[in-house]
Amino acid sequence: MTGWRSRLPSRSSSIRVNPIRRSSCCRLQRWSRVADKALRFALNLSADVLALHIECEESGRLIEQWQEHVARPARESGLREPALSVIPSPYRLVVTPILMFILNLERVNPGRIVAVVVPELVESHWYHYLLHNQRANLLKALLLLKGTGRIVVINVPWYLDQKQRGIDELTFPANALTAAAGYGIVSEPRR
Hints:
Layout: E1 22-27, H1 33-45, E2 49-54, H2 59-77, E3 83-87, H3 95-108, E4 113-122, H4 135-146, E5 151-159, H5 162-165, H6 176-182
Parallel strand pairs: 1-2, 1-4, 2-3, 4-5
Helix pairs in contact: 1-6, 2-6, 3-4
């Protein structure tokens, strides 16, 4: 009988550690505190961050807010600016265009791990989940089923009932890039 210990490397063998190159993708519906938290988390993972947005009536407003809250602070602090990709969807499909974009990103970058950051609302009662759209769950399931081993799906929870969870507003800095740069999370400024 062979157990899990037989699959471990022997003590005499050395373990090679390879640096992991990764890209982070973050899906944004609109600019909000949930999107800000997801973007900050994506910046913790990699300096190569790509935000995905499906084209709709609010796309122009999101692009303006992106310039104000993300692009301008990144340029002012000398950091690498995260990219915002607005994906056209003629039939207002949401999950399929994002899925195809991420699978193509994985195919084009064979040496990279693609980390997909999915912001998700966490309710205090199970029956509240029925009121929210289940696109995030569908996207996560399809990415895990159709992707290769180089796609990593990460949930970023946003608790709607923050008082019950003991989370106060001071925990979340107002600006994603300024906070990430202040803590040394994002790469050094370009010279």
